[in-house]
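1st attempt posting a full record on here, be nice pls
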Amino acid sequence: MKYSIFDGERVAPFPKGKGICPVCASPTQVKCGKRKIWHWAHESLQHCDRWWENETEWHRAWKSLYPEEWQEVVHFDEVTQERHISDVRTDKNLFVEFQNSPMSEEELASRERFYKNLIWVVNGHEFKKNFHILHKLPNPICDFVQNIVFHLIKYNHQGRLFHRKSENSNRVPGQWNLVHVHSISEIQDEIEQNYIGHHLFDWVKPRKIWYLSGVKIYFDFGSEALWNMQTYDERGLICVQSVSKRSFIEKMGGDPTKIEAVLKSTKDQL
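the predicted structure (as tokens):
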């Protein structure tokens, strides 16, 4: 934890510090060293919040972009009597969780149900090499796209194809039918004119848990952009959209001038 209770106040770690856990009121102590970031830990070596994961430089850098009073806020559900520490809770009561480790379906569902108004930012360092960003897609709500169906492709596959609904009006949804296909190159100009960051992608050996989420997910691969996984069209095509980290941080009420710390934390993982 970044904060513990000392003399009635939330404080950051200090040498030989002793405090009280803000969730369960158990004794805490400071763990400090040259290799790991300074943090508070339970003296019993057991964490009271089962959702908590060991904090990395990546976690700390992201949380530090936001006001201290938004970081590690204890949230209590009066109905379930559950109590958990959120990574960030904004002044709009939006929860932002920075997730580094894999989790079970049960935990994903529980956390989204508990926080309700939640956004995930996922550290993509471990699967970056398997996550291939492919060709651009146009704005899904622009007029010409309403007649277009883009075909899924795999990494290094040469076929970039689409078909027009109007040319295949007899096609039965959900059934295999021959369709009149076209190359993406035929509409490349229209795509460029209506591009707002959407791309097809191929995720080899995906972490399937993230396809089950019911809230917004942003993958952090260490660049100056985040990638928001989302549904592109009515048939359920999944795409990603590039979002500037600076604009994301600013929109969430953080300080975009501190973004270098986030970029550095990702590079340090290499």
